[in-house]
User: Which sequence fits this backbone?
C-alpha cells in the first residue's frame, strides 16, 4: 500500500469531525486483524502495547505494569502489522 501523507490523513479526519461523522478506530494485535479492519473501511487501526501481553495469554492490565517499554512494544508490533495493510 502506498504511504499516505500525514497532512492528508489529518485533513480527512478533521473534515469528518467537522461534519459530525463518527471516526471509528479498532485495535489490531496481528496483521490478520488489521487486514480485516482495513477491508471493513475502518478509519484508524490502533495498536496497543497490551495486545502483546494478551497474545501471550496475560490480561490487558499487564500493559499498565512495568513489564516493558510501552513505546518500544508498540513500534515493534507496528513493524509486524503495518506491512500487511
Assistant:
Amino acid at each position: 500500500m502506498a504511504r499516505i501523507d500525514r497532512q492528508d490523513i489529518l485533513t480527512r479526519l478533521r473534515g469528518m469531525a467537522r461534519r459530525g461523522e463518527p471516526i471509528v478506530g479498532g485495535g489490531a494485535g496481528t496483521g490478520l486483524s488489521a487486514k480485516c479492519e482495513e477491508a471493513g473501511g475502518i478509519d484508524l487501526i490502533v495498536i496497543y502495547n497490551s495486545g502483546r501481553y494478551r497474545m501471550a495469554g496475560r490480561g490487558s492490565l499487564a500493559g499498565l505494569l512495568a513489564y516493558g517499554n510501552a513505546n518500544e512494544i508498540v513500534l515493534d508490533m507496528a513493524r509486524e502489522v503495518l506491512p500487511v495493510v
Residues 24-84 form one domain. The chain is about 45% helix and 5% strand.
